[in-house]
């Protein structure tokens, strides 16, 4: 089994003090703690409130757990799915705050909203929230480069940031994705459904409507509001209504937002963090594929259609981290760029990603003209130099080999000590 060392998250987890790991299910929260951290006690809370002692392979009632918990804080204690304990556990945490080392783990959307966005949060100031999302682009590239290279490395890294895919993956990734989506559509649907707790079930359709709308290209709150209103999921076509939903989905690491440059009012575009989720919701919208047994060739067609866009998003996020710059969306007349990075609303790097087998002279000329409109560093990403009919002028060309080299150099600077 491939194990990807997630050095960036691990460095955060090793900081002293009480911590709460949060994020949606199957992002590797428990795996990170079990395999990369030292701990003395590890408890898992079942759905019925029973507390399982992972170290001793035993179980106890929550009251028995409450009785021994304060004494355990002399060491490092892990409580997985702690939100399933009664509310008085939060009082117990208040009474013992600051003692020992405590790691809390939760996948519950409702609790994350209450802790991160609500006033008077019960754990605010007591624990340090650490969001665990998909595997960092740099870590997945380094991890997969032992077995993969070139075009397959970039494409596999784009999707295997989703930890649940790693144990099943066999190259090529395009066929693997088609097979996985065809055979596991209900598993993905159930995983997404588990994001919402009992308290949020009445809102599940709104959340799912947002996720489906984004997969359909409706990436602003205005577009999403009109889309949800047309489906009867909200009572008014009012973008303001959606802000709390978009905020929660963003905080949970399900969506990311990119600020728009070129508008007076602050505006954002929203995208799926997980390309697997994006494929899932697009297939749901287009074919209702979890309810109908559609031929795999239709799924493969969607994978082929979406994959270049997902690679583009992967490159943009990767470069944002490599250069320590904010990702931006340029909204100017007749100008739309795949990648724009900057700080304080100043654009410093722009780029295009042409993830296909052939880029002709006319297209290269258009790329040159488009990128020359912005006074910034310019680059073009292609799967191979052989894809170019001619090299563009004034534009740096980057291949998978160049990108991997950049990541290795960055890793060396981060972990040299």
UniProtKB/TrEMBL annotation:
The source's domain of life comes to Archaea
SUPFAM superfamilies, per this entry?
P-loop containing nucleoside triphosphate hydrolases
TM spans (from-to): none
Please identify the protein, giving its name as recorded: ATPase
Organism (species): Pyrococcus kukulkanii
What are the leading ranks of the lineage? Archaea, Methanobacteriati, Methanobacteriota, Thermococci, Thermococcales
């Amino acid at each position: 089994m491939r194990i990807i060392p997630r050095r960036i998250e691990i460095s955060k987890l090793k900081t002293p003090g009480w911590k709460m790991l949060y994020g949606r299910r199957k992002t590797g929260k428990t795996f990170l703690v079990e395999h990369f951290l030292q701990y003395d006690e590890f408890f898992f809370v079942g759905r019925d409130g029973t507390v399982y002692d992972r170290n001793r392979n035993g179980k106890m009632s929550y009251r028995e757990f409450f009785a021994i918990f304060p004494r355990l804080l002399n060491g490092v204690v892990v409580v997985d799915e702690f939100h399933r304990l009664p509310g008085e556990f939060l009082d117990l945490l208040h009474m013992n705050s600051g003692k020992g080392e405590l790691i809390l783990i939760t996948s519950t959307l409702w609790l994350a909203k209450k802790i991160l966005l609500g006033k008077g949060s019960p754990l605010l100031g007591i624990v340090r929230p650490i969001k665990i999302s998909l595997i960092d682009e740099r870590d997945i590239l380094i991890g997969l480069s032992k077995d993969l290279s070139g075009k397959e490395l970039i494409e596999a890294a784009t999707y295997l940031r989703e930890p649940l895919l790693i144990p099943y993956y066999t190259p090529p990734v395009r066929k693997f994705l088609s097979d996985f989506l065809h055979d596991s559509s209900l598993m993905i649907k159930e995983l997404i459904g588990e994001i919402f707790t009992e308290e949020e079930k009445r809102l599940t359709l709104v959340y799912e409507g947002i996720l489906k709308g984004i997969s359909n290209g409706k990436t602003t709150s205005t577009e999403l509001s009109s889309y949800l209103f047309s489906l009867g999921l909200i009572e008014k076509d009012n973008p303001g209504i959606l802000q709390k939903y978009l905020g929660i989905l963003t905080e949970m690491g399900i969506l990311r937002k990119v600020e728009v440059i070129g508008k007076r009012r602050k505006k954002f575009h929203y995208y799926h963090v997980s390309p697997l989720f994006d494929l899932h919701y697009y297939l749901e919208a287009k074919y209702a594929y979890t309810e109908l047994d559609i031929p795999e060739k239709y799924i493969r067609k969607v994978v082929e259609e979406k994959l270049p866009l997902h690679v583009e998003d992967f490159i943009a996020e990767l470069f944002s981290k490599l250069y320590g710059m904010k990702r931006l969306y340029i909204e100017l007349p007749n100008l739309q760029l795949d990648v724009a990075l900057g700080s304080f609303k100043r654009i410093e790097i722009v780029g295009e990603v042409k993830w296909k087998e052939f880029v002709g002279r006319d297209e290269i000329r258009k790329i040159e003209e488009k990128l020359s409109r912005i006074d910034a560093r310019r680059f073009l990403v292609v799967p191979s130099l052989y894809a170019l009919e001619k090299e563009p002028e004034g534009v740096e060309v980057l291949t998978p080999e160049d990108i991997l080299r950049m990541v290795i150099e960055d890793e060396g600077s981060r972990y040299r000590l």
